Amino acid sequence: MIGVIGGSGLYEIEELDQKTTVLLESIYGEPSAPVVIGSIGNLEFAFLPRHGLNHQLNPSEINYRANIEGLKRIGVDKIVSISAVGSLKEEHEPGKFIVIDQYIDKTFTRKNTFFEGGCVAHVPFGDPVCRALSDSIIRALEDNKLDHFKKGTYICIEGPQFSTRAESFLYRSWGCDVIGMTNMPEAKLAREAGICYASLAMVTDYDCWHPEHDDVSIEAIHKVMKANNSNAHKLIKSLSTSINMNEKSCGHCSSDVTDILMTSSVDNDQRFLDIIKTTKINNES
Fold first, then answer.
1. Are 51 and 186 in contact (CB under 8 A)?
2. Mean pLDDT of 115-139
3. 269 is annotated as an active-site residue
4. Set 77, 101, 177, 207: catalytic member
5. pTM reported for the whole predicted model
6. Which of 101, 147, 205, 215 is catalytic?
7. What's the structural domain count of the chain?
8. CB under 8 Å to 223, separation ≥6 — which residues?
9. Mean pLDDT, residues 210-218 taken together
10. Does 285 reside within a domain?
């Protein structure tokens, strides 16, 4: 099953056939919303609106652990994240798409791991997205002739405020391509759970650094977002033919818990065993 996590403006997928609504369960609390499960072609999709059905959750209020663990429980082993972002480079014009390949995490209030309180694991994250799944997204973008970049660095800030002009110039000096508020710790948790994760960023504005464009406004974002979301629906429909589901995992994103777990024994605490079991970090069904 392919999970699609929709960002700002993307709250449903009309293209799904045979839809059913499922309440996600998680030991970490309440996920953002029920998921809608349906099919496109021969593939099954599970759609989750990241901010809730009415966009009632700000980026720091999203229960990322519950979302990822809940999706894992229902059998999702690939996640396509779709997010609205601001551009930090001239060439990344509003309306363009960027397939993210790197992150800088500047969040500071969010629960960003399943391993804590007596159970420690160190998870490789040098290549934070699934290359195979990202390539599938690129093929879908090419099939739909959507203007895009095949890679880019996403800096994730805490929000919900946009960055200051000084911060925007700082992030540009770091070489960041886009700025957003939601892909962290989502991508980290997906890696811990052994889920292939790829991110499609939809540019809505130039943040506040560009001298020839106004500062970020909700009105401007909504205008571009409407066109972006129309193209996002085309892309999601194309994923049914571009994604190769012959193999359960790409082999890059999944980790055997024995390789990453540092704590010598968690046998006496069922909670930690449940974390390992329910997130299926060893990629077992």
1. no
2. 91
3. no
4. 207
5. 0.89
6. 205
7. 1
8. none
9. 72
10. no
CB 93 within 8 A of CB 143: no
How long a stretch of residues is the chain? 285
Domain assignment present for 130: yes
The Cα–Cα gap between 150 and 258 comes to 34
Instruction: Please provide residue 105's backbone torsions phi and psi, each rounded to the nearest 5 degrees.
Output: -100, 110
Q: Which of these, 180, 238, 227, lies nearest to 2 by C-alpha position?
A: 238
Whole-number Cα distances in Å, 116 to 56, 110, 157, 279: 28, 13, 23, 14
3-state secondary structure of 224: helix
Give domain status of residue 196, yes or no. yes
207 in active site: yes
Contact 252, 131 (CB under 8 A): yes
pLDDT in tens, 231-259: 888 889 998 888 876 555 566 787 665 67
Domain harbouring 156, CATH code: 3.40.50.1580
The 10 Å Cβ neighbour count of residue 53 is: 12
Q: Rounded distance, CA 52 to CA 33, Å?
A: 5
Q: What pLDDT is attached to residue 228?
A: 76
Q: Is 108 left (phi over 0), alpha (psi -120 to 50) or beta?
A: alpha
Domain that holds residue 6: 2-279
pLDDT tier, 273 (very low <50, low <70, confident <90, very high otherwise):
very low
Secondary structure letter of residue 142 according to DSSP: H
In a domain, residue 120? The reply is: yes
- Tokens 């079991």 belong to residue: 277
CA dist., res. 15 & res. 2, Å (int): 14
